[in-house]
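hey
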């Protein structure tokens, strides 16, 4: 019976396989939210959004009398059924007891007298909590100008903390919005701007015509300017950063074209990038039409723009074909990391892609070892089981890099041309739909059954998807590009090469990172001191070179660099950078103590998701 219902829901859900989402209260077999019209005002003083969300809801089950939505911390004042005439009828509602991870189920009742039409509009008046998980409110001191800033972060299950909605990635909505801000600020969203010459200052309208999962609805408000970088592309940033941002992102149009060549037509009309304040929680977030990107990618030499390539690639893997549940997260990130490498190779050359690949590989090996040591070997499989856990806990290199290596394995077996055809057809056939790991496996096996397909067994595939660590079919990772750096690293370490004689002036940032990552824990303080003063290593400059340097300092117990560890962690809120350093600190008792000291100061500047991630590291549950 259960299967039958699940099958019925299949087409309406537009999920390629019936997928129960352990992280949502929604009952998509009864009702589906199709459109959300937001009318919200941002109150920077109170740190709240307040207004209404009008949901267009389709009833699938005629017997259903309750609509269940996800919320987290929302204060709901009224719920109305809006009739075609415009008349509104009050509906009863109930907020369930909050679950610490999932939030509260909002149950809206339809009285039996008023048999609901199959499509209806439900208007919910509410305000967000002043501690809403999705929202980060920044003081002027945390921006690069004299104004405050706020943004939303929906992924993974935080959209429900600012919109009452079916917050499951397998369910898609279109949306429109009217946003009111303080008059001197500008609002941007993951949607088309609707220019309204009659709009008052501080009033902005948006329209997203393509259906997207709730986690991709996004808003940012600040002192923002825009610079076009081509017909379809451009950059938003705080005014003082706009010129540097435009210089860094000069290749944006080429990136988009390269994406279309590999993955098929770009379906979102425009692609803009929003350069965020330093506290932004991620390197990048793929909000459709408008990726949010950390300013830490601005290195001056375009060496860190792979993050932007990555977020752009999500326009296909993630935003177009979407993981149906967070257990299928690798379908978003693994495909995207694979595409990222391909696009970097196309735009910046094979050598740069190979270097980034080799660096990522070393990090992946470390992650696998760490997860194993922590008794979490099950999290080294691509398909995760996150029921009962915060989905962000499953967010590791595994989804990204093991996922990308699985696709690389398929590419090698298929041959590039045939694999590219497969990919393009995959994005096309499943566009604007959710995808489970099992459905992808089926699609792949079907393709492998067709004439001319390579021989790849289900066992080989399942070893990647369900097995731990890295299977024997791993394609060897190119290390040769680093041969010269590796030689220099060994010679320096073993005293055959003086610090002053390192050929480092010729190194690109990726070579610097490799050099630093190759150094073991027992390098002497003296050598590290020389390195630091000769090459001005510290908390500033290229954010990833600084990260590798500070990791080395922590590993080697090099105390003179500790103040820079603190400075770095106070200056960025970017997940990977922050998590990497706190994880390294947490490897020793003294490091943990130092980490706690730093965190006490840094915490107010971190997004809630990053606080949770750091606390898991430095205050682990016994
Ligand atoms: N979608 C992710 C960010 C994310 C993951 C947000 C999980 C919330 C939960 C984004 O596309 C991403 O992967 N960002 C990376 C950069 C990328 C180049 C690997 C990041 O922020 O480190
Ligand atoms: Zn990503």
């Amino acid at each position: 019976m259960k299967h039958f219902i699940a099958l019925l829901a299949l087409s309406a859900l537009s999920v390629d396989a019936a997928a129960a989402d352990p992280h949502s209260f929604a009952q998509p077999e009864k009702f589906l939210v199709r459109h959300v019209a937001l009318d919200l005002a941002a109150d920077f003083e109170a740190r709240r959004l307040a207004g209404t969300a009008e949901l267009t809801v389709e009833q699938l089950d005629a017997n259903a009398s309750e609509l269940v939505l996800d919320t987290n911390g929302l204060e709901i004042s009224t719920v109305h059924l809006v009739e075609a005439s415009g008349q509104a009828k009050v509906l009863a509602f109930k907020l369930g007891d909050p679950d610490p991870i999932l939030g509260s189920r909002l149950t809206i009742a339809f009285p039996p007298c008023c048999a609901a039409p199959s499509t209806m509009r439900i208007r919910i008046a509410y305000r967000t909590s002043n501690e809403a998980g999705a929202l980060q409110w920044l003081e002027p001191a945390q921006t690069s100008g004299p104004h405050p800033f706020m943004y939303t972060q929906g992924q993974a299950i935080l959209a429900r903390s600012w919109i009452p909605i079916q917050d499951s990635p397998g369910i898609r909505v279109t949306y429109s919005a009217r946003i009111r801000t303080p008059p001197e600020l500008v609002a941007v969203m993951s949607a088309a701007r609707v220019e309204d010459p009659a709009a008052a200052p501080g009033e902005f309208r948006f329209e997203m015509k393509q259906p997207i999962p709730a986690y991709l609805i996004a808003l940012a408000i600040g002192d923002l300017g825009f610079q076009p970088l081509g017909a379809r592309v451009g950059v938003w940033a705080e005014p003082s950063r706009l010129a540097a941002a435009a210089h860094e992102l000069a290749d944006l149009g080429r990136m988009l074209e390269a994406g279309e060549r590999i993955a098929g037509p770009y379906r979102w009309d425009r692609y803009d990038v929003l350069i965020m304040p330093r506290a932004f929680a991620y390197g990048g977030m793929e909000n459709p039409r408008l990726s949010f990107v950390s300013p830490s990618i601005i290195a001056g030499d375009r060496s860190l723009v792979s993050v932007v390539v990555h977020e752009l690639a999500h326009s296909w893997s993630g935003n177009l074909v979407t993981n149906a549940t967070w257990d299928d997260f690798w379908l978003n990130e693994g495909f995207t990391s694979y595409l990222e490498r391909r696009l970097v190779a196309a735009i910046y050359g094979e050598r740069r892609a190979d270097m980034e690949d080799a660096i990522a590989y070393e990090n992946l090996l470390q992650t696998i070892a760490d997860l194993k040591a922590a008794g979490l070997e099950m999290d080294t499989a691509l398909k995760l089981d996150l029921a009962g856990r915060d989905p962000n806990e499953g967010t590791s290199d595994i989804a990204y890099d093991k996922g990308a290596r699985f696709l690389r394995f398929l590419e090698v077996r298929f041959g590039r041309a045939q694999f590219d055809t497969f990919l393009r057809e995959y994005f096309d056939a499943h566009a604007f739909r959710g995808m489970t790991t099992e459905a992808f496996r089926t699609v792949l096996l079907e393709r492998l059954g067709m004439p001319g397909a390579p021989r790849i067994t289900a066992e080989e595939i399942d070893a990647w998807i369900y097995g731990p660590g890295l299977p024997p079919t791993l394609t060897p990772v190119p290390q040769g590009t680093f041969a010269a750096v590796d030689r220099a690293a060994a010679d320096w370490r073993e005293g055959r090469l003086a610090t002053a004689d390192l050929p480092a002036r010729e190194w690109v940032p990726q070579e610097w990172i490799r050099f630093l990552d190759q150094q073991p824990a027992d390098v002497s303080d003296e050598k590290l001191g020389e390195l630091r003063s000769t090459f001005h290593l510290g908390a500033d400059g290229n954010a990833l070179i600084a990260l590798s340097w500070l990791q080395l300092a922590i590993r080697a117990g090099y105390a003179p660099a500790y103040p820079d560890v603190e400075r770095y962690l106070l200056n960025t809120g970017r997940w990977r950078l922050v998590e990497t350093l706190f994880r390294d600190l947490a490897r020793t008792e003294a490091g943990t103590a130092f980490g706690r000291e730093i965190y006490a100061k840094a915490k107010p500047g971190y997004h809630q998701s990053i606080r949770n991630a750091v606390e898991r590291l430095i205050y682990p549950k016994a």
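Residues 1-17 have pLDDT under 50 and may be disordered. The chain has 18 helices and 22 strands.
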